[in-house]
Amino acid sequence: METSSLSAIWLTIKLASLVTVLLLLIGTPISWWLSRTRSRWKGPIGAVVALPLVLPPTVLGFYLLLFMGPHGLMGKITQALGWGVLSFSFTGLVIASVFYSLPFVVQPIQNAFEAMGERPLEVAASLRASPLDAFFSVALPLARPGFVTAAILGFAHTIGEFGVVLMIGGNIPGKTQVLSVRIYDYVEAMEYGEAHILAAGMVIFSFLVLLALYGRRGHKGWSR
Fold first, then answer.
1. How high is the pLDDT of residue 219?
2. What share of the chain is helix, strand, coil (3-state, %, to 5)?
3. Which residues of the chain register pLDDT less than 70?
4. pTM to 2 decimal places
């Protein structure tokens, strides 16, 4: 396998790992709020979080490119701080991937929090546990299956990104060229043998991810 392909694989794993950690940190409070609130803003905020599920990746990538570009709000801030623009950089890929994969992490965790019900928290409150104690000692352990699903989906979805990362990061070897973009390069150059190797790896990886998810659900079904 070529060095450029190995570099793309490593960059993709690095990106997916970092994005998954950030998504769990960002998505947990959002999921908790969406599962508990009765605010009129629940619907609009939930819709914003879920937008990447229905938007074409190129549309989301285009607006993020403008947002992070030299004339965008984030671009102006990062330039004022001396960081330059984040488009066509690894940091830009991370930010775009967090936006793009957010619903794949928020929704499983939110569903887990909602399935938990009110009773466990009421019991914790009756034992004089503070809301923060109840969250960490009761809610998080009970929602663990949702977190596992969210982590798997967030990681796998980031691995398979193409449109968003191409719009934001371009195709810079060793810097922003991830696995899906490398496959595109091979196909464009009509090097189908190399493309087959990487694409087959993606197919196997995707199958194993789905097998892990459905296997967990099947095991729970048999154990009931």
1. 52
2. 80, 0, 20
3. 1, 216-224
4. 0.88
Tokens of 217: 């659900």
The whole-chain average pLDDT of the chain stands at: 89
CB 202 within 8 A of CB 160: yes
What residues contact residue 44 under an 8 Å CB cut-off, 6+ apart?
none
Q: How many domains would you assign to the chain? A: 1
Nearest one of 32, 34, 55, 58 to 44, comparing CA atoms = 34
Q: Give the integer Cα–Cα distance in Å for 151 and 46.
A: 19
Strand residue runs (E) in the chain: none
Q: How many angstroms separate the Cα of 97 from the Cα of each of 8, 51, 81, 211?
A: 16, 13, 23, 24
What's the pLDDT score for residue 208? 87
Which domain does 46 fall in, by range? 3-223
Residues 172/173/175/178 CA torsion (nearest 10 deg): 90
HSE (side-chain half, CA atoms, 13 Å) at 106: 24
Please report, for residues 35, 104, 108, 151, 214, the alpha-carbon distance to residue 144 in angstroms, rounded to integers and kept in the order given.
15, 15, 10, 11, 16
> How much is the pLDDT for 160?
87
Structure tokens at 164: 């968003």
Residue 223 CB coordination number (10 Å): 6
Distances (CA, A) of 65 to 45, 69, 96: 22, 6, 9
Angle at CA of residue 111, ends 106 and 112, nearest 5°? 100
Supply the CATH number for residue 101's domain: 1.10.3720.10
Backbone angles phi, psi at 116, to 5 degrees: -65, -35
